[in-house]
C-alpha cells in the first residue's frame, strides 16, 4: 500500500496508542500506525523496509521473516558485542585497578623521594653554609697572608736598602782605612829610608862617615820637596785650566739664545767681542798674573757675571709665575756643580799633599790647613747640598796656595755660587 511522509510522522499519533500498557506497543486500534513506525524504524537502522504485515502472500511473509532473522542476527551480534565489551570493560577495570595501585606505589615513592630531596636539600644547605664559612675563613687567611707577604717584602726591601747603605759605608770605611794605611806606609817608608841611610855595617860609630850620610839625607829631602813642588805646580795648572773652562762655559751660557741677558748688553758685547781673548776679557790670562795685579779684574768680572746671572734668574722667575715649581736643576747648573765638585776634590787632594809634605819639611806656616775641615769635606766630596756650598769659600780661604791669585779666584767664584744657590 502506498505511504507518504505524513504517514511516518509519529507526533500526530494519539497518546492513547502508547499508554495502553507498560509493555504494549500495538493493539487492534493502531496496527496500521505501528506498521508504519516499524517500517520507518527499520529503514532508519538499515533493515529491509516496506514490510507488509497485513498481506497474506508468501513474498511479504518471506520479507518479514528475513527482517525478523536480520533482527535476530543483530541481536546475537549485540549480545556478543556486549559480552566482549563487558570482558574488555573488566580487563580495563583490572588494568585501571592495577594502574591505580601502581600510581599509589609511585606516589609513595615520590613522597619518599621528596623526603629524601628535602633531607638532601637541608644537608646541602648546611654543607653550603659550611663551605661559605670555610671560603670566608680561607679568604681572611689569604688576605692575612698577602699582608704578611707585603710586609715581608717591605721589610726585605728595607733590609736590602740598609744592607746597600751598610755596604757603601763599609766600602767608604775600607777606602778610608786603605788610605790611612797607605799614608802610614808612606810615613813608615820615609822613616825606613832615613834609617837605612843612617845604618852602617858593623854598627861601629867610630867608622861612620857622618858628613856624607847627612849630605845624602838632605839631598833626598830636597829631591822629595822638588818632586812635591812639581806635583803642586801640575795641580795648579789643572786648576787654572778648570777655571778657564768654567769661564768659557759661563760665556757660552751668556751667548746662548735662551741664556743671553737683555739688560746687560755691555757685558755680553765684551764677552763676544773677541773669541781669541781670555775668558776674562784680556789677551793675557789673568790667572798667570801676580795676585795684586789680577785681583780687581777677577773680582769685577766675576761679580758682573754673577749679577747678570741673577738678573736672568729674576727674569725667568717672573716669566714662569703660576707654573709648578720643580726642584730639578738645569744641565748647565749640573755641569757647573760637577765642575765645582771636581775642583773641590782637586783642592782637597792638593791641600792634603801640601799639608803632609810641609809638616815634615817644616816649611813656613802659611801652608797650614784646617785638617778637621778637610777631613769632613773629603767624606762628602761627591755631594752638593746647600749647607756644603755655603762653607766652600771658607774652605778655600783655609788653604794657602803658592799662587794667591788662584786662591782668590776660587774664593770669589764659590762666594758667588753660594749667592746663586741661596737665591
Rg over CA atoms: 68 Å
**Count of DSSP-assigned helices:** 10
Pick out the low-confidence regions.
1-21, 200-206, 259-283, 362-403
Q: What is the residue-averaged pLDDT?
A: 71
Largest sheet: none
Broad structural category: mainly alpha
Order of helix and strand elements from N to C terminus: HHHHHHHHHH
Shape: rod-shaped
**N- to C-terminal separation?**
152 Å
Number of domains: 2
Percent helix, as a range, is: over 70%
Number of strands: 0
Beta strand %: under 5%
Element layout with pairings:
Blueprint: H1 31-45, H2 58-198, H3 210-255, H4 265-272, H5 291-319, H6 331-361, H7 371-379, H8 386-390, H9 392-398, H10 404-422
Helix pairs in contact: 3-6, 5-10, 6-7, 9-10
Account of the 3D structure:
This is Afadin-and alpha-actinin-binding protein. Belongs to the ADIP family. InterPro entries: Afadin/alpha-actinin-bd. Keywords: Coiled coil. It holds the Pfam family ADIP. By secondary structure, this protein is mostly helical. It folds into two domains: 94 residues, no CATH class; 203 residues, no CATH class. Helix content is 73%, strand content 0%. The protein is built from ten helices and no strands. Helix 3 runs antiparallel to helix 6 and helix 5 runs parallel beside helix 10. The chain is rod-shaped, with a radius of gyration of 68 Å. The protein starts with 30 loop residues before the first helix and ends with a helix.
Amino acid at each position: 500500500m502506498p505511504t507518504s511522509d505524513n504517514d511516518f510522522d509519529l507526533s500526530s499519533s494519539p497518546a492513547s496508542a502508547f499508554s495502553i500498557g507498560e509493555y504494549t506497543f500495538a493493539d487492534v486500534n493502531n496496527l496500521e500506525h505501528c506498521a508504519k513506525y516499524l517500517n520507518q524504524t527499520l529503514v532508519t537502522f538499515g533493515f529491509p523496509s516496506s514490510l507488509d504485515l497485513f498481506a497474506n502472500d508468501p513474498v511479504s511473509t518471506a520479507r518479514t521473516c528475513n527482517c525478523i532473522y536480520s533482527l535476530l542476527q543483530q541481536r546475537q551480534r549485540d549480545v556478543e558485542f556486549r559480552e566482549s565489551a563487558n570482558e574488555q570493560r573488566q580487563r580495563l577495570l583490572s588494568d585501571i585497578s592495577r594502574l591505580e595501585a601502581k600510581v599509589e606505589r609511585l606516589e609513595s615513592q615520590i613522597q619518599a623521594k621528596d623526603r629524601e630531596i628535602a633531607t638532601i636539600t637541608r644537608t646541602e644547605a648546611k654543607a653550603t653554609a659550611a663551605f661559605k664559612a670555610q671560603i670566608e675563613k680561607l679568604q681572611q687567611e689569604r688576605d692575612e697572608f698577602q699582608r704578611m707577604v707585603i710586609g715581608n717584602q717591605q721589610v726585605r726591601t728595607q733590609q736590602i736598602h740598609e744592607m746597600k747603605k751598610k755596604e757603601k759605608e763599609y766600602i767608604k770605611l775600607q777606602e778610608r782605612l786603605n788610605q790611612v794605611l797607605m799614608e802610614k806606609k808612606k810615613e813608615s817608608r820615609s822613616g825606613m829610608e832615613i834609617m837605612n841611610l843612617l845604618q852602617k855595617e858593623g854598627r861601629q860609630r867610630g867608622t861612620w862617615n857622618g858628613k856624607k850620610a847627612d849630605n845624602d839625607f838632605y839631598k833626598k829631602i830636597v829631591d822629595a820637596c822638588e818632586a812635591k813642588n812639581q806635583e803642586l805646580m801640575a795641580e795648579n795648572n789643572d786648576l787654572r785650566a778648570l777655571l778657564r773652562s768654567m769661564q768659557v762655559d759661563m760665556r757660552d751660557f751668556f751667548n746662548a739664545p735662551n741664556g743671553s741677558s737683555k739688560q746687560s748688553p755691555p757685558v755680553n758685547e765684551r764677552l763676544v767681542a773677541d773669541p781669541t781673548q781670555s775668558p776674562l776679557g784680556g789677551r793675557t790670562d789673568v790667572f798667570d798674573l801676580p795676585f795684586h795685579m789680577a785681583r780687581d779684574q777677577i773680582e769685577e768680572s766675576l761679580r758682573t757675571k754673577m749679577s747678570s746671572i741673577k738678573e736672568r734668574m729674576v727674569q725667568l722667575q717672573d716669566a714662569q709665575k703660576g707654573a709648578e715649581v720643580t726642584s730639578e736643576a738645569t744641565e748647565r747648573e749640573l755641569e757647573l756643580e760637577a765642575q765645582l765638585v771636581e775642583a773641590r776634590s782637586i783642592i782637597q787632594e792638593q791641600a792634603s799633599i801640601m799639608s803632609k809634605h810641609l809638616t815634615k819639611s817644616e816649611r813656613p806656616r802659611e801652608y797650614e790647613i784646617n785638617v778637621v775641615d778637610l777631613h769632613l769635606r773629603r767624606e762628602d766630596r761627591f755631594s752638593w747640598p746647600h749647607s756644603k756650598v755655603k762653607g766652600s769659600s771658607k774652605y778655600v780661604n783655609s788653604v794657602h796656595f803658592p799662587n794667591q791669585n788662584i786662591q782668590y779666584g776660587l774664593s770669589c767664584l764659590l762666594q758667588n755660587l753660594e749667592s746663586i744657590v741661596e737665591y
